[in-house]
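User: My instructor asked us to take a sequence, write out its structure as tokens, and then describe one feature of it. I'm not sure where to start. Here is the sequence I was given:
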Amino acid sequence: MSRSLPTADEDLPSSPLERAGGRWLQTIVLGAATWIVAMSLLAVVLAGLGAWFPWLVLPLALVAAGASGWWAHGIPARSLPVWTAALLVVVSVGAGIWTATTHSEQVLPRRDSASYLQAAISMAETHHRVVPVDPASVGGPDVLAIEGVTLASPAFYEVGSDTDPAIQPQFVIGPGAIYSLGVWLGGPTGALLVPALLSALGILGLGLLTARIGAPRWSPLAAAGVALLFPVLHTARATYSEPLAMVTLGGGLLALVIAARQGARGEVGRAALLAGVLIGGTAFVRIDGLRETILLIPVAALALAQGQRWPRATLLGAGVSTLLAGLAALWLSNQYLGTIAASLVPLVGLGVLMGLLTAVMLWWQRRGGAVPQAVSRFLPTGLGVGVLVLGLFLASRPLWQTVRQSPDDPGSRVVAGLQLRQGLTVDGGRTYAEQTVAWLSWWVGIPALVIALATLAWAVRVVATKWTAGESLPAWTGPLLVGAGSTVLTLWRPGITPDHPWAERRLVIVLPFVILLCIAAAAYAVRHLSRRAPVAVAIGAGVALVAATIIPTAFATWPHRSERVELGELAAVDAVCASLTDGDVVLVVDSRAANEWPQVVRGQCARPALSTTRTLQQDPARLATAVATIDQAVTAKGGRLVLLAVEGTKELDALGASDIRQVSDAFVAEDDRLLEQRPDGLVPLSLEVWTAVSNSGSE
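Assistant: Let's start with the prediction itself. The structure tokens for your sequence are:
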């Protein structure tokens, strides 16, 4: 007769140390998530009014931290074995240290991480979210009226009029607000280290979520698996929004499980409200956090249909936080919302439709409606099989589908250029969205995807079985449905330029969900087999499932283990800033300079900067006339017009500029930009910069 292993979801010992460990780790995660939402809301008010001052914000941040911790500490926690809690801390802290010591220096806003950094620097230095610009600082309103001359640059919009202009950063306010605290405390380097801390908290939160859904002894493995994911590591090395969203969304799902457990006992605690606030509040840091908020609607509907009261508090919290985030975006990020309307409007429409269907379903149930018994008997197996079919459908898309977008979209030109350089058929309209399951397999391996799909199908069948039997749903139903729904929507339409590893940002929710499903499968296999087979068989099954998940993940990340993306970029920026003096007004005159340098000069160098459009750059006569006009206007106000180029000195020579100097001759290593292969290394990037003094206005 075989001995049985301890079950993964049995009651854990509750010594004072074990209770304290579980409570304090949970308080840290939920408190940090609450603090991020609170600070984002505070930033809307203060930065929106131009009062984002360090002497005001930093003390308020400490008060918000204390209040968030107090609120989170009142939520019931589960005891954790000392060794489990210790391993969770070791994994999370180790991941944070690894990430911090290999952090990137993505400073020039070619992609989103540096755009967030520059927005943070702008908030920290100007105290505004939307930064007013004195027209006199760039030569006057007449300069801004010149066709092809602008204050705008990628991720930074020019708003207002020529007489009252301002710069509005792209994206929503949360990342800029949080990373600006790092700027105050440690300059740009301080901001670049903050994501490592946030990622460590997010990994800890996912470990606690694993413990809460019934696998506490397996939670360190789940945390380690997430920490080993390259997309998680990659985004945590730079100032992306994903590390923030991992904390708020992970904390929200953790609170959702707690709320469901309390609801099963007839209680409605603060966890239910907090779950909604955190999941809805994710929209403060990522506008597509709206997707996960919408997916709360079916979760709440299922629980409300069973007569549970806690979803009301969750929906209230989600509704309020989503509304506030939406109003903040309309006020301070309206230009960004306009550019993503094609994606945002259908998402809002989906939310409205799901809300209406939920209301109709609940009304029908109150009037005595019920699912026919024939359907109830078939439903669990049908849904389980449906999950498998959907997974195979998504995986098979490359065999029968090629997804395209409008060839006039700016992203299409980027894709076409990448295809040309990589020897692929030039078809810039391709989005490569049909290959998203293959993207997943690059980082966790095909076996893990098979395990995750089978586990998801089994879990959906369990939920449906309990639902049709009138039993309380498992507490993990919420994270399961939100994670599954988010995964399907992301895989179907990732909505990102498909070059890798940049596109892996879209997988930072999907891949941890895969890891958690695989670890849950291992925990269940050990628990199930230990009651029916020898211990060695149970252990062997668990080891095999974990190995099939962790080993491919580790091998995929190994080539990137010590990468320092764009290391040396801060020094290059410092060199350019040091070459400028008081009274200088910088005008960028070539295409790449216009993409990378205007906001950096304006923010980090604290010098006025103007950009030229591609149309003006391609018309030498008009460009020369514009430069002469700007030079005359700047000189008349006691300044000096400095021309900046990064594609060589051809434009400077053509403009008859003098004192041409190379102020940066650096080379760094940047991420590759592959379309159909997994990236395994970095490629060189030139950071050469030339400046010159315009003589046009004095001729």
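For the description part of your assignment, you could build on this observation: The radius of gyration is 27 Å. Try explaining in your own words what that tells you about the chain.
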